[in-house]
Amino acid sequence: MGAMTGLPVVDCEDVAWFRDGAEMPSAARGAAATLARRIGLDGYRSSEVALAVSEAATNLQRHANDGALLLRVLRTPDRAGVEFLTIDGGPGIPDVGAALSDGVSSAGTLGIGLGAVARLADAFDIHSLPGRGTVVAAQFWARGAGAGPTGGAPSVASGLTRPISGETSCGDAWAVRVDDGGQEDPRSAASARGGSRSAPSPEPAVLVVLCDGLGHGPLAALASEAAVAAFRRSTARHPEGLLRDIHAALRGTRGGAVAVARIEPARGRVLYCGIGNVSGILLGPGSRNGLLSAPGIVGQQMRGLRTFELPWKPGGALVMHSDGLTERWKADDLPGLLRHTPAVLAGQLLREAGVRRDDAGIVVVKEAW
Q1: Are 248 and 347 members of one domain?
Q2: CB 3.0 to 4.6 Å from 296: which of 5, 138, 229, 275, for a disulfide?
Q3: Could you read off the pLDDT of 9-19 as tens digits, one per residue?
Q4: What is the 3-class SS of 154-183, one letter each residue?
């Protein structure tokens, strides 16, 4: 993965969302301790994970509006860790640096325990917009008692899924993997349009997929899971070849809207191909470019695949999301966002644009190479 290519990718397995409520801190703490032990963290580290999650959940309960905490597993080829994200709708933190100092607390703001959480975590990131909301992300990996942070497992990509209100399974799914380069897959070469201009580079690249299964609930989740499985096992390197493999895998399911992107750092470009209502946005400092998808339903009706090529700008990010997020968000309304990790960036956009009446899925690939 990352060691071979310089493009680190960490797999995420979402476990559970915990909503604001009187029982949220205790429920989240118990789940975090159980999860940490299950993936192999020792008793001491598991207790630290539980403490950090409890502090974060208590902050939400006491000080935040519409707070939620996501608990999940992170995996690399040789280890596993725990990550949590908190997302809230305000009031925000006027001075994040002060809030991270021990002993700082003020009524109406998130401040209690943030410094302790940051110390316990191997990787920690926070972005807060006063009057709008805060997103916190923290990773916890195995380490000896008394040892300092490991720096976590940095990844060029992260994403979030959230089920429609009343459901426990989400019909949206995403995945990312690294293409280490090599010989061109025949199906990719045949499907590439524009000749050598859109043929995949032999250099390492990041491949990303987002699927919005038709409808919501367990059957939509089955479709999106099938799309992710096909994406992972496909040998295609071009977005069109990957979409064709996903189309074949989704026959017999509800089908869905699917988009696939290929980010090539060496060539400084993005290749993007989508079918259905998935939004693709290429962000750069002071710029926003939309990426078009064709009408259709992958697994049922898919015609006229077309790959779009855009330049990858330094300091930029690729955002892909389902229609569980509106397209009315503006990066300019979220100052400083592009300086943060993909997980926090995804969390802020979900907070800003997510709707409760549909499944929501978002994935972000951000320059880190």
Answers
A1: yes
A2: 275
A3: 899 988 899 98
A4: CCCEEEEEECCCCCCCCCEEEEEEEECCCC
